[in-house]
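Box 4.2: Ligand-aware structure prediction
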Amino acid sequence: MSLTFDQILSWLQEDDGPRLDSLWQEADRVRREQVGEEVHLRGLLEISNYCDRACQYCGIRQPNVHLDRYRMTPEEIRAGADEAVARGYGTVVLQAGEDPALDLSVLCDVIRRIKNETPLAVTLSLGERTVAELAACRRAGADRYLLRFETSNRELLEHLHPPRAGDPPTHRLDLLRVLDELEYEVGSGVMVGLPGQTLADLARDVLLFQQLDLDMIGIGPYIPHPHTPLFQKLRTADPPCAGQATADELTTYKMMALARLACPQANIPSTTALATVNPQAGPLLGLARGANVLMPNLTPAPYRRRYEIYPHKAGSERTSAESANAALEQVLALGRQVGCGRGDSVKRRMRCRATVPGPTE
Ligand code: SAM
């Protein structure tokens, strides 16, 4: 279904309970029809909390001196992949800050080892890397790449996500096109309720999901981190801008449901940020309102509390086993099934099928 700006904005402004119920039901129906009842579990490894960027919203930003930094060794990453296999997952997600010391040859080597020695799909979420680096990781076997455009409001993005000193402003949209050309499955997404972000901006975000025809869409509420400039600004605050979007659960569910309607075959996670604002019901409601993916955290115990992009991150006090069990319970509580296999993009599979010529006579 192609949504218009006015339709999306009107849903984002909706506060009538029964009408919102009809949105949740429609998102759930489309999810069931297009990607089925399976919930795919992706094992998340937060492989480094070093970052050389200074995003105003993010707790692992380089200027945050209060953070104890770590970088997982290739052996630890490889062991994390084994844990994902042992838990029956089809994908491992390697996520990190923009860490220049995460050496490309080491990274490619660990990707190759995972690909040669396990059946896992490998998803990368390593921020803005050069085209040559993205191509090298793809050649090494990486299957998917997650790079949120964060907000479609260009001016706001450039303010909140400044380039490195001397670099031109960031063009995450250009990188998303590169990733598509490199034949990665491409994921992107946004934060909801960034200071200065309006409901109209969120409506344009959904239009952009639709236009980019994404394989994966991650949406979570913005959660202020005390050691960031954005938190300080909120405390001393100017009044919110006219039409400011709220960084709450309800707006996040609306965005997830609209993302499902805009991109019916996308893989959409019920995100950790959502689970952070509502640990009990958030993951379940996310799955009931458009999502079909969970990402249990398999980051080893000594590190996981240190990947603090925002405070009280859901799962940071759990062990990998507890995160894995919680995800399983959530899927079963909804009467859904855990996905088998890699949980590849349905859309991309269908596109491949359409372009592969049939047998000739
Ligand atoms: N460095 C990579 C990147 O920039 O894509 C991946 C790691 S980054 C920490 C992953 C995501 O965390 C970002 O895309 C952003 O949407 C989200 N994030 C960062 N700070 C956040 C905050 N304070 N509240 C909610 N989400 C946040």
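In the box above, the bound molecule is S-adenosylmethionine. The longest strand covers residues 38-48.
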